[in-house]
Design goal:
- The protein has one domain: 3-Layer(aba) Sandwich (Rossmann fold).
- It contains three helices and nine strands.
- The strands form two sheets. It has a six-stranded mixed beta sheet with strand order 4-3-2-5-6-7. A three-stranded antiparallel beta sheet has the order 1-9-8.
- Helix 1 packs across helix 2.
- The protein is globular, with a radius of gyration of 16 Å.
- The protein binds inosinic acid and magnesium ion (MG).
- Magnesium ion binds next to loops.
Length: 182
């Protein structure tokens, strides 16, 4: 079995990630200038590096919060489409807030479709999403994120918050796993 680190090729370098978060922060600042109550809602655990870099570059006044969700019966590469809330958002004042979900990747689209409906049902003023990576070829439901770092092909990726079996989240770049070497 080839070690995982020998099966990786860098897909988005640290320099590219920095350029992406700078661009997205500027887009968000432009769009949220007249939204005085905003929550950046990070989805644990994959969004943490992306969110911390993004928020440092934003000038918009915002609060932060987190939710954790998981898909029932998810294997490493598959989702059943049922999303379970593991850590909920409890805010009595949610009606006053525009929420920007910060997520590592949109794949099948089930997670963000579910979360958008869930937060709107709780009464959020608006719900949009900012994703680092978009794999549009994997969509099972027609979800379009509002802000996208970069579109990637249908490859399994890890690093910069994304995991493979809960590991490799601390890599400072996004890498793809070479499936041909086993
Ligand atoms: P969706 O509901 O299928 O859009 O799932 C999104 C979630 O699946 C993300 O938050 C990730 O946790 C996980 N995911 C999807 N693709 C990958 C990948 O290539 N690497 C690591 N995690 C992934
Ligand atoms: Mg995730």
């Amino acid at each position: 079995m080839t070690p995982m680190t020998d099966r990786l090729h860098i897909l988005v370098s640290a320099e590219e990630l920095s350029a992406i978060t700078s661009r997205l922060a500027a887009e968000i600042d432009r769009d949220y200038a007249d939204h005085p109550r905003m929550i950046l809602l990070g989805i644990l655990k994959g969004s943490i590096l992306f969110m911390s870099d993004l928020m440092k570059k934003m000038k918009t006044v915002c609060e932060i919060d987190f939710m954790k969700v998981s898909s029932y019966g998810r294997g490493v590469r598959s989702s059943t489409g049922e999303v379970q809330v593991i850590l909920d958002l409890f805010r009595e004042d949610i009606r006053q807030y525009d929420i920007l979900i910060v997520e590592d990747i949109v794949d099948s689209g089930h997670t963000l479709t579910f979360l958008t409906r869930y937060l709107l049902d709780k009464g959020a003023k608006s719900v949009r999403s900012c994703v680092l990576l978009d794999k549009p070829s994997r969509r099972e439901v027609p979800y379009i994120p509002d802000y996208v770092g970069t579109v990637i092909p249908d490859e399994f990726v890890l690093g910069y918050g994304l995991d493979y079996d809960e590991k490799y989240r601390n890599l400072p770049y996004v890498a793809a796993v070479d499936q041909s070497k086993n």
